[in-house]
Write a structure and sequence with these properties.
single chain, mainly alpha, Rossmann fold, Tyrosyl-Transfer RNA Synthetase, 2 domains, three-stranded parallel beta sheet, 6% strand, elongated, binds adenosine-5'-triphosphate, binds magnesium ion
């Protein structure tokens, strides 16, 4: 099983990013590579492990829309630090950024000969993002799904985790692979593995601490609205203490929180962090007010986040380690990508001395 998954390299990471995205990767890594890691292969012996996770920063995708270069740069380093601090093991998984593996862009071009305009025109994400102004969009926004296809086909991924919004893009990757395999073959053999989708476990959706109807987000101007991965224990406690709530005690059942979005959010956070169901948490705290619940939630968050924020901050100040992590990951990714790209060139009849 070879799993490939990417994430946009954003900075200012918060609890929502951790519980909604990063933690899923860590769990995936821990489940999929439970039976061993790449250390033997890295040391020069042994063959490629049976189960592998490749996680990449989709920095090439980030330039498909207007962006601030300095923010992309900082965001990439922050995301790398956050992933490692949260538990992605750069020895066990292959962690890298697209920009250091030129084969992604290379394969995208080679697949552009196979992808059809009609297929891309039907992508709902393109339609949504372009809106009425198609003429004014970058070519990259249009061909984005071809780069996504290259991202997974390059490594002969067997499985790709996809949320509802990305299902169509994986279908497209399969269509491109299938057409390429039909039209061309490398020494009689099909070039690409058709990747299967798998739906990751539903991640928690975390809301703002100031407004239970708005998503916790890095773009909220109020820092009190979110818990940042870099917040120290005092800050975490203070933010939870100040979080908006209501004067009612907690109910025994989830239905009792239906029109209490702030209360529901704090219970959701507790449940997600403790890895328990919201019902279970309510079972424990039913009848208690926020005077009791908030300190318990604060303690739980501090305990969970302390090692993460410490490692995150350390890594952010250690540019050399971050560079080394990404360079090692990229070197391993390039090694895996090489043979695929060789057979693509060969299948297409391109001469390479
Ligand atoms: P922005 O406000 O700029 O959209 P953001 O805080 O929403 O930023 P993104 O960079 O858009 O963060 O998202 C990164 C990842 O984190 C995505 O996988 C997204 O689904 C997830 N994520 C973001 N916010 C939350 C949240 N509040 N709860 C759960 N998951 C979240
Ligand atoms: Mg967002």
């Amino acid at each position: 099983m070879r799993v490939v998954s990417g994430i946009q390299p954003t900075g200012n990471l918060h609890l929502g990013n951790y519980l909604g995205a990063i933690r899923n990767w860590v769990r995936m890594q821990d489940e999929i590579t439970a039976d061993g890691d790449d250390r033997a292969q890295l040391a020069g012996g042994g063959s490629a492990p049976k189960n592998q996770c490749l996680f990449f920063l989709a920095d090439l995708h980030a330039i498909s829309q207007p962006h601030v270069p300095a923010e992309l740069h900082r965001g990439s380093l922050e995301m790398t630090a956050a992933l490692v601090a949260c538990g992605i093991d750069p020895m066990r998984s292959i962690l890298f950024n697209q920009a250091q593996v030129p084969q992604h862009a290379e394969l995208q071009w080679l697949l552009s000969g196979t992808a059809r305009m009609g297929w891309l025109n039907r992508m709902t994400q393109w339609k949504d993002k372009a809106g009425k102004n198609r003429e004014g969009q970058s070519v990259a926004l249009f061909s984005y799904p071809v780069l996504q296809a290259a991202d997974v086909l390059l490594y002969q991924a067997t499985h790709v985790p996809v949320g509802e919004d990305q299902k169509q893009h994986l279908e497209l990757a399969r269509d491109i692979a299938q057409k390429f395999n039909n039209d061309f073959a490398s020494e009689g053999a099909p070039v690409f593995t058709l990747p299967e989708p798998f739906i990751p476990p539903v991640a928690a959706r975390i809301m703002s601490l100031r407004d239970g109807t708005a998503k916790m987000s890095k773009s909220d101007p109020s820092d009190l609205s979110r818990i940042n991965l870099s917040d120290d224990p005092d800050t975490v406690m203070r933010k939870i203490k100040k979080a908006k709530t209501d004067p009612e005690p907690l109910p025994g059942e989830l239905a009792g929180l239906a029109d209490r979005p702030e209360a529901l959010n704090l219970v959701t956070i507790y449940a997600a962090v403790a890895d328990r169901s919201a019902e279970d948490v309510l079972g424990e705290f039913a009848g208690q007010g926020f005077g009791a619940f908030k300190p318990a939630l604060g303690d739980l968050l501090v305990e969970t986040l302390r090692p993460i924020s410490r490692r995150f901050t350390e890594l952010l100040e250690d540019r050399e380690s971050l560079d080394a992590i990404l360079a090692t990951g990229a070197a391993r990714a390039r090694t895996l990508a090489g043979p695929t790209l060789d057979s693509v060139y060969r299948a297409l009849g391109l001469v390479r001395a």
